[in-house]
UniProtKB/TrEMBL annotation:
Domain Chorismate mutase: 37-182
Catalysis performed (reactions): chorismate = prephenate
Pfam family of the protein (one): CM_2
Cell compartment(s), UniProt: Cytoplasm
SUPFAM superfamilies: Chorismate mutase II
EC number: 5.4.99.5
One GO term describing the cellular component: cytoplasm
Keywords, alphabetical: Amino-acid biosynthesis, Aromatic amino acid biosynthesis, Cytoplasm, Isomerase
Keyword Transcription belongs to the record: no
Identification of the protein by name: chorismate mutase
């Protein structure tokens, strides 16, 4: 049945093996509570995005019922995957994700806290505890792997995660998992 289509196990594996290493630095910052809360938020957001593939697949079925029905009856998962794939849309999604990560992932620094500013001190992290503990450090420890930054990114504003890494995660994992949900949904569609 279509509502049994759930890729939680695959998603957890991808999150632990691919997403986390891409957006964090190795090591232990002892922030287990905050990390746990954010892990759950990320997993829920990814799960929702991927499993919305069921609605997308239903719309695609409605648009081409005969084509899909023939492939579903033939149990031809590869042909279904091919029929539902739209490379132009995928390219637009990747570019939008890259732009969003570059825009909303900026680490905003008050002018007075910027390196070279007379009021910036090396150990002043502000009353709310935010900010770099070292004003000469261009990246927040634990948030941005410097090795994940392209030279273009490193020259621009400080970013919490590399837009290229986020775009690659979408291309290699998020969209393929969404398509896997779509295929599984369609295979169960007539049952
Ligand atoms: O928008 C669609 O047509 C989808 O099926 C969604 C999606 C995606 O995951 O973003 C997946 C497959 C398509 O090739 C394009 C995009």
């Amino acid at each position: 049945m279509w509502h049994y289509v759930k890729l939680e196990t695959e998603l957890t594996h991808v999150y632990l093996q691919e997403v986390l290493p891409g957006i964090t630095q190795p090591g232990d910052d002892n922030n287990y509570g905050s990390a746990g809360v954010l892990d759950v938020l990320c997993l829920q957001a990814l799960s929702k995005r991927i499993h919305y593939g069921k609605f997308v697949a239903e719309a695609k079925f409605q648009a081409q019922p005969q084509e899909y029905e023939r492939l579903i009856r033939a149990r031809d998962a590869q042909a279904i995957l091919h029929l539902l794939t739209d490379k132009a849309v995928e390219q637009r999604v990747i570019e939008r994700v890259r732009l969003k990560a570059a825009t909303f992932g900026q680490d905003i620094v008050a002018p007075s806290q910027q390196p070279g500013s007379s009021s910036a001190s090396s150990n002043d992290s502000g009353s709310n505890g935010e900010g770099s503990s070292d004003s000469s450090d261009t990246h927040l420890p634990g948030l941005l792997p410097p090795q994940g930054l392209s030279s273009k990114e490193a020259a621009g504003p400080r970013l919490k995660v590399s837009p290229d890494v986020v775009a690659a995660l979408y291309e290699r994992w998020v969209m393929p998992l969404t398509k896997e949900v779509e295929v599984q949904y369609l295979l169960a569609r007539l049952g």
